[in-house]
Amino acid sequence: QSVLTQPPSVSAAPGQKVTISCSGSSSNIGNNYVSWYQQLPGTAPKLLIYDNNKRPSGIPDRFSGSKSGTSATLGITGLQTGDEADYYCGTWDSSLSAHVVFGGGTKLTVL
Amino acid sequence: QLQLQESGPGLVKPSETLSLTCTVSGGSISSSSYYWGWIRQPPGKGLEWIGSIYYSGSTYYNPSLKSRVTISVDTSKNQFSLKLSSVTAADTAVYYCARLRLRSWVGPWGQGTLVTVSS
Fold first, then answer.
1. CA distance to partner chain B, nearest, from residue A80 (Å)
2. How confident is the model at residue A95 (pLDDT cuts 50, 70, 90)?
3. Is B49's CB within 8 Å of A88's CB?
4. Which of B49, B108, B109 sits opposite A99 (nearest CB)?
5. Chain-chain contact of B37 with A44 (C-beta, under 8 angstroms)
6. CA distances (Å), B53 to each of B25, B30, B104, in order?
7. Neighbouring C-alpha atoms within 13 Å toward the C-beta of B119
8. What would the pLDDT profile of A26-39 be if each residue is shown by its tens digit?
9. Are B103 and A32 in contact (CB under 8 A)?
10. Which of A38, A92, B17, B35 has the fewest CB atoms within 10 Å, counting from its CB?
11. What is the CA radius of gyration of chain B?
12. Can you tell me the mean pLDDT for B54-83?
């Protein structure tokens, strides 16, 4: 049972837009930055979004992040088949004394 | 470009201790801005933070694993290590080492190493 709640799967056609939600509480998302990670099949997770809505160098602006209250959202526009991956949200949790907690992950299928 | 690489046995017997080392290259583990951590992923499942260490040696552990986990750092070798004792099949996972920006983000990650607990 993950501390953060994500939908198990989402799907959309190439070129379309998709959003992935991440729900938490005041002890985690509500009072901390949210980050997002992309895990392509058979590879390690990669930082996609940090501090709610910032993109590391090299991440295209098709990827965006937002946060409101105790929830966060990852948006991907102009979907490509290469975007098929598992996506995880992450944040800090003060009540658990945890340096990082993750969502259960969302499998993105580009139809 | 900072890189992390995990190393250690891929097979551990039940009740024994899992030991992994992460070697950091392209940057110093003694940076004051970051922690260094271990995260694992059981096959087909999600990510679980195990614990983190600062270059000074301060450690922080997942409460659910705290009684079995020890993380240490060797700044002279630019390495940090994980020991997980009394392992069971439930500890079978891909183990990743990573850099953590406190209260912010995790990255980069090592490529990960699969550790199987089996007799």
1. 24
2. confident
3. no
4. B49
5. no
6. 17, 11, 15
7. 3
8. 999 999 999 999 99
9. yes
10. B17
11. 13
12. 96
